[in-house]
Amino acid sequence: MGRARPSHRLGPGLAQSHHEGVGQPQQPDVNSPRDGRQRPENQSATPGFPIPYETREGDPSMDSALRVQARYGQRALLITTLAVPLTGWTVHALTLHRRLADARKDPLSGLPCRPEFVAYGERLLRTRHRDTLHVLMLDGVDFKAVNDTYGHAAGDSVIQTMGHRLARWNANRTALAARLGGDAFAVCAALPPSTALAEITELREQLQQPLQHEQHTLRLDVSLGIARAADLPGETMSRILRGADTAMYKVKKREATFPYVATRADAYVETVNGRRAGRRGTHTPARAG
């Protein structure tokens, strides 16, 4: 008798198919549990690793997250929708404000004009700065001769330089300078009594520094009058400015020497057509109403 051929049992995991080859290990199905039980749809095949949200159909936490994202997305869209026109209006308002401010400035000197200057002084008079408020009136000496000798371009350069120097002096002070017209300028500043005279003298010296225009050196000089609110209690800005103007005129006519501070009589000097006698235009008679 022939010896019986031993039967070989194929162990678990060995393929039975002829095409796959005998003895080739079969790849286990990670989604099929070994105990044959059906795995829930939202249970991970690998313990300790949760199934991704995108594979969890009907997962309440996924629905909640989507709802939260949608709600915040709608809010962000609403905020953006509102913010865009508001930002546009803000930029427009700032641009308009800047243009209006520039329109109220003298284009040659870059300084504010009389209405803004008087309004600034009135505001300071209503604050704690009233007792330290100084109003300075400045007038160019022989500026017309610069125009006549070197031309209007040189005269414009003088006005521009005066504006720049006044603005630089004001920069670190509670002060405002303005061009009132022609070669007349004014400064309103809150200055401590102990240093006020020294600071005003420093400004006068700065304004008198020579100016180089093309090949010419222009000599500058100014007449300067001072009025202090402390010396004129209860008076308005316009009245204090009139006192400073009278003080400046006395210095210019050499009826007084710098530094001359206006008195109450100077603030109430007689005027012609609302202007101090001697100012250009005061010879024109007032029209009957």
Please outline the helices and strands.
Elements: H1 60-103, H2 114-125, E1 133-140, H3 143-150, H4 152-170, E2 175-181, E3 184-190, H5 196-207, E4 211-213, E5 216-218, E6 222-228, H6 237-252, H7 264-267, E7 271-272, E8 275-276
Antiparallel strand pairs: 1-3, 1-6, 2-3, 4-5, 7-8
Overview features:
single chain, 289 residues, Alpha-Beta Plaits, 40% helix, 13% strand, extended
Walkthrough of the structure:
- With 289 residues, the chain is of the alpha+beta class.
- The chain has two domains: 52-103; 114-271, Alpha-Beta Plaits (2-Layer Sandwich), CATH 3.30.70.
- Helix content is 40%, strand content 13%.
- The protein has seven helices and eight strands; from the N terminus they run H-H-E-H-H-E-E-H-E-E-E-H-H-E-E.
- The strands form three sheets. It has a four-stranded antiparallel β-sheet with strand order 2-3-1-6, sandwiched between helices.
- A hairpin with a 2-residue loop joins strand 4 and strand 5.
- Helix 3 (143-150) packs antiparallel against helix 4.
- It is extended.
- 21% of the residues are buried.
Number-wise, the strands total: 8
CATH homologous superfamily descriptor of the largest domain:
Reverse transcriptase/Diguanylate cyclase domain
Low-confidence stretches: 8-23, 52-56, 282-289
Class derived from helix and strand content = alpha+beta
Structure described in brief:
The protein is an alpha+beta fold. It has helices at 60-103, 114-125, 143-150, 152-170, 196-207, 237-252, 264-267; strands at 133-140, 175-181, 184-190, 211-213, 216-218, 222-228, 271-272, 275-276. Helix 3 (143-150) runs antiparallel to helix 4.
